[in-house]
């Protein structure tokens, strides 16, 4: 037959459970009363939680609840970190997506600046870009293309689902200079 824990033990348990960081005995006393026998309550909690999934533990002079060490294997997960691409990475990915298969030299010609090797490496590590063979020209440069993971990540069924100029213009994603340049290109095509 188990007996209900006394009010002080329950109060210490509640304070430790709600704490966002480990607490000293003095900090716990500030919540449960200055005259409280907090060490006795902590000893009782350690005994009550023995063999359970969590337990109050002392690290230095501070206490907190911790998962039982023998259960750590159940809590391990691979955590996916969100990827933040640099502007160069976004531009490079867009060029590859719209012009694949494309060489580094072609990417640089479109961007107007040199592409750092690390930029393409980051896109490959993300699983969005892959080597797509070699171009049959002198020097046989490596070409790059997008992957199925790229399509999945961006919610596309095929590359044909990529937004076109009209979609980008309607969404306000083009700079006014880009819009003016696109307009000139369109009007130039009509005059031919």
UniProtKB/TrEMBL annotation:
GO biological process, one term: chromosome separation
Alphabetical list of InterPro entries matching this protein: ScpB_csome_segregation, WH-like_DNA-bd_sf, WH_DNA-bd_sf
Gene3D superfamilies in UniProt: Winged helix-like DNA-binding domain superfamily/Winged helix DNA-binding domain
Keywords: Cell cycle, Cell division, Chromosome partition, Cytoplasm
Keyword Cell division: yes
Top-rank lineage group of the source organism: Bacteria
The keyword Cell division belongs to this UniProt entry's keyword annotation: yes
Pfam families (alphabetical): SMC_ScpB
Classification via SUPFAM superfamilies: Winged helix' DNA-binding domain
The protein, known as: SMC-Scp complex subunit ScpB
Originating species: Sphingomonas desiccabilis
């Amino acid at each position: 037959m188990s007996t209900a824990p006394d009010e002080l033990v329950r109060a210490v348990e509640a304070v430790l459970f709600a704490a966002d960081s480990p607490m000293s005995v003095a900090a716990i006393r500030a919540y449960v009363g200055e005259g409280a026998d907090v060490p006795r309550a902590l000893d009782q909690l350690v005994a009550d939680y023995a063999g359970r999934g969590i337990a109050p533990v002392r690290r230095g002079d501070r206490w907190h609840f911790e998962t039982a060490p023998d259960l750590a294997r159940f809590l391990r997960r691979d955590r996916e970190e969100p990827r933040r691409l640099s502007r160069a990475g976004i531009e490079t990915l867009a060029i590859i997506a719209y012009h694949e298969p494309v060489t580094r030299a072609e990417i640089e010609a479109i961007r107007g600046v040199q592409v750092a090797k690390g930029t393409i490496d980051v896109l490959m590590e993300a699983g969005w870009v892959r080597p797509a063979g070699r171009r049959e020209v002198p020097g046989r440069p490596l070409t790059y293309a997008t992957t199925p993971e790229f399509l999945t990540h961006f919610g596309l069924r095929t590359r044909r689902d990529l937004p076109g100029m009209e979609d980008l213009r309607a969404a306000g994603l083009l700079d006014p200079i880009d819009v003016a340049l696109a307009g000139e290109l369109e009007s130039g095509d009509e005059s031919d």
